[in-house]
Design brief:
The chain starts with a strand and ends with a helix. 39% of the residues lie in helices and 17% in strands. It contains eight helices and nine strands. Strand 4, helix 3 and strand 5 form a beta-alpha-beta unit.
Length: 216
């Protein structure tokens, strides 16, 4: 039997690429999407057009024992968007957890963010930590993946600062934080997500940046 996957946020930067890989590996994939966005999904993905903020609206579309992958969130998050974090990131995560429990999903995978404190993204980190607490407090088996910034097409600008980031890693006063906020590459994120799909935990597992950067 193919693995059954249900994704929220499947039309986004990570979602489209992850779905294509999962389909290629033989998974059956359903993706929750808004009306009019179905064409953004890779061919072979089953669209589920419904409200991602209402568990009751889409829970019945999830096959029992599916793996639920939660990717939905504010695009290009930044300090100016802090009012949206609870409205979008937390609200969609809460609906997804509730729907996954209703559908008796076998595994819940969540892309969070690195939790090393920063002044710039503190509100975003706090929101994602609140989502993690919700997931961990549920009865779901869960994998939580914590990148900082994902380098890939259209997202290469941080590489301009790579020499500075390397320097900060070797300065004792900044080394710990700099290493905790290392960049990861799109391929590493997709590898980690696929690894999480194939290796469900006994209860919960967390992938920090050092785990995402590992070759698999």
């Amino acid at each position: 039997m193919p693995r059954l996957i249900f994704i929220s946020g499947g039309t986004g930067y990570l979602g489209r690429r992850l779905i294509a890989r999962l389909l290629k590996s033989g998974c059956q994939v359903k993706a929750l999407t808004r009306k009019g966005s179905e064409a953004k999904l890779p061919p072979g993905c089953i669209p589920v057009v419904n409200d991602p903020f209402s568990a009751d609206a889409f829970a019945s579309s999830i096959d029992e024992c599916s793996i639920f992958i939660q990717l939905l969130g504010v695009s290009h998050p930044g300090p100016a968007k802090k009012d949206l974090f609870d409205k979008i990131d937390f609200a969609s995560a809460a609906a997804s957890v509730a729907a996954a429990k209703q559908a008796k999903c076998s595994h819940f995978i969540y892309v969070s963010v690195a939790q090393t404190p920063t002044s710039i993204m503190n509100e975003y980190q706090k929101c994602r930590a609140k989502c993690e607490d919700l997931i961990i407090g549920s009865s779901l088996k869960a994998s939580i993946i914590r990148p900082w910034y994902v380098i890939g097409p259209g997202h290469y600008w941080p590489l301009l600062f790579l020499p500075l980031l390397k320097l900060l890693e070797i300065i004792p006063a900044t080394s710990i934080k700099a290493k905790a906020l290392r960049l990861v590459y799109l391929g590493q994120m997709l590898d980690t997500l696929c690894y999480a799909v194939e290796h469900p935990p006994e209860q919960q597992q967390i992938f920090e940046i050092k785990d995402i950067r590992m070759s698999r």
